[in-house]
Fold:
Amino acid sequence: MAHPDDVDFGAAGTVATWTDAGIEVVYLMITDGDAGGFDDAFPRAEMAGLRRDEQRAAAKCVGVTDVRFLGYPDGRLEATLDLRRDIARVIRQVRPDRMLIPSPERNFERIAPSHPDHRAAGAAALDAVYPDARNPYAFPELLKDEGLEAWTVREVWMTSAPPNPNHHVDVTETFERKLNALRSHASQTAHLGDGLTDMVRGWLTANALELGLPEGRLAETFQVVPTP
Structure:
């Protein structure tokens, strides 16, 4: 994900269902979110450290303990070869079957999730999945210098309001854990107060109704792309 809190807004309910099922989940945050926050009095130099701590706390709410950061600057992310290599490195280290990434496409119906950092992160991650991580001759230094063998990710799940969602997860039972994760990002969500619950419930209710789920259900949506 591009920033701390992206995974929690887009998919924390789903992640909780995965960890409940015994699936191991590892988070990789490309930036530290150092351009975030709403308190002008908070020292800007301390924002990155705060947001790392908030993401670690949020991860624990949904059963994730391995949280990694690449430290790229917030707000200036580009899908460079360096970023592709850094993501491919983590893919080869973790060897995942599934990657959860932001959509690299802009959604004109819901513009906010299509933050430039989100789209850059999605584009770089998708390129890291195919072809970089699976090609032993791409970034050969990963094998030569670090001993990281090529690895093929089987599928990618795109979040951040993908323009063409084709899969949903009912997160009604994990909604409170998603909210707890989001509240852990106090620098980003505290100013919303009780409105956070209503806002997130509204999004997930709209998803569920559009999918034809029974009234009262909540859903997170994704575009799932096979990448065998």
